[in-house]
Amino acid sequence: MEQLYKRPKCIQPMQSGYCPGCLHSLATRITAEVVEELEQQNNCILVLPVGCSTMGLLYWKIDMVGSAHGRAPAVATGVKRCSKNSLVFTYQGDGDLAAIGLAEILSAANRGENYTVLFANNSIYGMTGGQMAPTTLEGQKSTTTQKGRDPLTTGYPMRMCELIATLDAPKYVARFSLHDPANVRKAKAGIKKAFETQLAGGGFTFVELMINCPTNWGLTPLDSLTYMVENTIPVFPLGVYKDVEV
Amino acid sequence: MGKILMKGCEAIAEAAVLGGCRFYAGYPITPQNELPEYMSVRLPEVGGDFVQGESEVASINMVYGAATVGTRAMTSSSSPGIALKSEGISYLSGANLPALIVNVSRGGPGLGTIQPAQSDYLQATKAMGHGGFRMIVFAPYSLQEAVDLTYNAFDYAERDRNPVLILIDGALGSIKELVELPPMKELPTEQAKWQLGNPTGEKRVARMLTSIYPEAGLETLNRTKGEMAVAWGENDVMVEEFLLDDAEYVVVAYGIAARVAKEAITGLREKGVKIGMIRPITLFPFPKGSFRKLDYGKVKAFIDIEMTVPAQMRDDIALEVLDRAPIYEYGRSGGVLLDDDGVLEAIEKVLEGEA
Ligand SMILES: Cc1ncc(C[n+]2csc(CCOP(=O)(O)OP(=O)(O)O)c2C)c(N)n1
Ligand code: SF4
Ligand SMILES: [Mg+2]
After folding, report:
1. End-to-end CA, chain B
2. B44 touches B95 (CB < 8 A)
3. Residue B142 and residue B256 in contact, taking contact as beta carbons nearer than 8 Å
4. H-helix or E-strand containing A23?
5. How many CB pairs under 8 A join A and B?
6. CA A7 – ligand 1 centroid, Å
C-alpha cells in the first residue's frame, strides 16, 4: 500500500516537548516537509532563536546554530554570506523578532540578505511564562498586563509583515495561519515559495506564521484555535504583502 | 617585501587579511574607523565580505554566524562598543567558536572620550562577558608587533575554538610606523571540524553549534575552558623582560605606556640607575613567571605605569609580588596622554623615596 503520510526524515523520531496543542510543532513539521520536498536536508543551515523554539535544537536533524536572543538575523547574515550555496533560514518567535531583535530583523530585511525568516507569532512570550510581547492584542491578558494590554501605556500590536513590506529590498513577505488544515496548506506553499526564491538567489524572504500558545493564553488547544480566528487574525490580516518577481 | 608606512588600525586590518580573515562586521566608532573603512575595500579584493552592521551587537553576531561555517571572521570597536559586544563574545566562547576581536580603546566610563586610554584592562582580562570564560589577550606596543600578533591570532582562536582579543589604545591605532608585512597565509583546505553547511554534499550526521547545554554538559564545558586557560599560562605567555638582570626598580607597563616608560628607563640607565621593565605582551595569560624569577633581595620597588586611573593591572602584579616589595602606581586618564616628563618624574619620586 502506498504510504501517504510519514514523519519527515530530517526530524528526530521522538516526541516533541512543546506543550500539547502548540503550533510550534506543526510549523516545524511543515517546514521539514518543504526542506525534504526541495531536497535540501543536506544543504541547509537553520538559525534558531531564544524562545520555546530553541527546543528545535532537539528535534531537527539538519545543521543548526543557536543564537542569542533576537540576533538570529545577524547570525544568519554571517552564515549566508560565508556559505552562499546553503539554504539558510531563521525561525523566530515574536518577542525575539519584534522586541529585542527589532534592529536586526529590519536591518537584515533592508539589506536584502538572501535568506528566509520564518516568524512564529503567538502574541506572547511563551518561554518565559506569558509576558506581554509587542504583538499582544489590545486587552489581551498576560502576566505583565494582568488587566489586559492597555494601548495607552503599552502601545498597540506591532505588525511585522506590514513594516517589512515598506522596505525596498525584501522579495517575498507574507502572513499565514496554522489554525486549520486549509490554512496550513497555504502556509506550506508560502514557505516553499520563500525557499525557492532564496535558492534562486532572489533575496530576503519573510514568512509569518500565526500560531497559538495554549499554555500561556490559559486556553485548551481547541479554544486557542477559536481565539485565533476570533481575535488574533482580525488584527493580523493574512495574505501576501509583497511578492516581487525574481 | 620591504617596510611600508602604515597607520595602526590599517596595519592591523591588513595583517588580519594576510592571516586569513575573510569576513568583517563592525559599527563605526572613533578611534578605530580606519579599520572597517580599510576592510570595506580590502576584503572584496580577496574574495571576502564586509558588512557595516546596524550596531555592535549585530556585528558580533554576524561574526558568530560567519565562524559557524568555518570562515575566519573578525570585528573591531572601541570601549563602549566592545561592552555592547560582550554578550556575543560570551556566546562565541560558549559555542566553541573562533573569532578575532580588536579593541582600540578610549577613555571611560560611559561615553567617556574619543581620546586614547588603557581603561579596559579589567574587562579584557577578567570578564569580557558573562559566564566566567577567558580569552587570550594580546597587547602590542608597536605596529610591527601588532601586525605579527594579529597575523597569527586566528591560529590561536582556531586551536582553542575560542575568541581572541587584541587590545590597543587609540594612540597606537592612530600613529603611523614602518611595518614589514608577512606573506598571505594559505587558508586551510580541509573543512573545520565544527563547520556547518555541506558544500560537497558528503553524507554525515547533522551538526549543531550552540551555547545552550544540559547541566552536566555545561559543567564539563566550564571545566574544559578552565583547563584551557591554565594551559595558556604554561604555553602561550608572551612578555618582554627589559634590563631586569640587575634591576632594583621594576616598571610594569604594557602597550603605549610601555613605550613611554622605555624612554624613561633608557635615560635613567645612562645615569646608572638599576631599573628595568616587565612588559606583558599577553595580558592574559599574565606573565607571572617574570615576577617569580626576580631576586627579591635586590628589588626595592615596582612601579605600575598605565594610561588609566586608578591602575587596573595592579592586582595582577600584587598577586605575584605579595608584600616582598612596595608597588607604586602612576597613570594619566580620561584621554590625557602619558608623557615622557610625567613618567620620568613619577619614577624619580620613587627612586628618591618620595612617592
Ligand atoms: C538577553 C536575553 N534576554 C532575555 C532572555 C529571556 N527570554 C528567553 S525566551 C524569551 C521570550 C521568548 O518569546 P518569543 O520570542 O515570543 O518566543 P516563544 O517562546 O513565544 O515562542 C525571553 C525574554 C534571554 N534568554 N536573553
Ligand atoms: S509555552 Fe506556549 S509557545 Fe511554548 S511550547 Fe508551550 S504552548 Fe508552545
Ligand atoms: Mg511568542
Report:
1. 48
2. no
3. no
4. helix A23-37
5. 136
6. 29
- H helices of B101-142, where? 121-126
One-letter amino acid for residue A193 of the chain: K
pLDDT at A43 over 70: yes
Residue B198's region, left for phi above 0, alpha for psi from -120 to 50, else beta, is beta
- Which CATH number fits the domain B239-351, given the four candidates 2.40.10.10, 3.90.550.10, 3.40.50.920, 3.40.50.2000? 3.40.50.920
Is the pTM of the predicted complex or chain greater than 0.95? yes
- CATH code of the region B3-235: 3.40.50.970
User: Which has the closest alpha carbon to A78: B94, B97, B77?
Assistant: B97
pLDDT at B1 over 80: no
Can you read off the three cell numbers belonging to residue B270? 645612562
Q: Other CB atoms closer than 10 Å to residue A244's CB: what's the count?
A: 13
Q: Residue for cell digits 576592510?
A: B39
Nearest to B351 by CA among B301, B295, B306: B301
- Domain topology for A24-243: Rossmann fold (3.40.50)
Looking at the complex, does the CB of residue A87 fall below 8 Å from at least one CB of chain B? Answer: no
State the average pLDDT over residues B138-165.
98
Mean predicted confidence (pLDDT) in B234-252: 98
Cell output for B294: 626576580
Task: Give the Cα separation of A144 and A63 in Å (integer).
Answer: 36
For residue B36, pLDDT beyond 90: yes
pLDDT tens track for B58-112: 999 999 999 999 999 999 999 999 999 999 999 999 999 999 999 999 999 999 9
Please state, in angstroms and rounded to a whole number, the distance separating the CA atoms of residues B82 and A97.
23
Ligand 2 centroid–CA A151 distance in Å is 25
Tell me if A103 and B58 make a contact (CB, 8 A cut-off).
yes
Q: How far is CA B263 from the centre of its chain?
A: 23
Number of H helices, E strands in chain A: 11, 7
Q: Which of B50, B62, B191 to mutate to test the interface with A (most CBs of A within 10 A)?
A: B62
* Rounded Cα–Cα distance for residues A120 and B160 (Å): 36
Any idea what DSSP says for residue A244? -
Q: Is A60 on the interface with B (CB under 8 A)?
A: yes
